Amino acid sequence: MANMAHLTYSGSMGDGSHHCQGVQIVPFKTSTTSLRMLLLHGNLEICVEGAKNLPNMDLVNNSIGDMIGTLSGKIQTSDPYVTIAISGAVICRTFVIRDDENPVWDQHFNVPVAHYGTEVQFIVKDNDFLGSEIIGAVGIPMEQLTSGTRMSGTYPIIGANGKPCNKGATLSLWIKYIPMENMSIYQDGVGSDLKNEGVAGTYFPLRIGGTVTLYQDAHVHNGALSDVVLSDGTTYKNGSCWRDIYDAISKARWLVYITGWSVNPTLATLALGLDLTTLGLNLNSSETLHKKFSSPWSDEPVRGENRSSVYLSAIMPNRHLL
Length: 322
Hints:
The chain is an alpha+beta fold. It has two domains: about 5-185, Sandwich (Immunoglobulin-like); about 210-315, no CATH class. Helices cover about 15% and strands about 30% of the residues. The chain contains six helices and 13 strands. The protein has a five-stranded mixed beta sheet. The radius of gyration is 28 Å and the shape is elongated. Mean pLDDT is about 75; it is low at about 1-20 and about 275-320.
């Protein structure tokens, strides 16, 4: 069964499957014909099956790692892996297989794309002790993918001289492009179908029953804004964003705080009323700040309390988002 490669970023060049956002430039052409520049906007299903008859790059370029391996008595040869790139942008890569000239990855990727380019390149590389080196590459023209037909086959791995990198060197793979307009998840929105699982590959699943509260401003004084009659005849009453945030944090047992902001401690505090501590004082108090923000996962501040959970995603006005 094919291994599913999760869409996670990693800068490591070690073993494992990664969805990367690196750059990989192939310094030679993988096609002898002129190719059209096209946009792939949708999803790519890719399976890198395996390669055969790869050259022994360790014989070509002896390194410290090779000498260490020779002294240990181990047979040293290429440590191949494959990166997949469009116009130099790496969209995914396989794991490394040690000392194998006929590697079998059988690794499957499901990658969202919005890339201009002429071809999807499969770059076979050798993960050497001091870095990595290109063995060769296979180019699949984008024009052949736009029909939506799954392309499957065994392709010669082209080297820097425009010829196969080694006698009989091939890469087996299949690839299919699904354009955005054919992906049901993006047609009517995630709320149109209760069976819809939401955006694929995300850590938290799609949940229903959530609410969104709209505010005229971050903070307004009572009576400063008039109530609004909605189209269904109900009346919308303006609330106070800062006060509601304060109440939610104070009463929450668990807090997931998602935001990026910079705080100027010299700013004047914002008074929310005489019946509660000002938010500015709350943020300037190290003990309260530690309790509310630094230790949301600790049981100590909430032991014995029976309070609801709050998932808070706040974008603060006049703050610099990271």
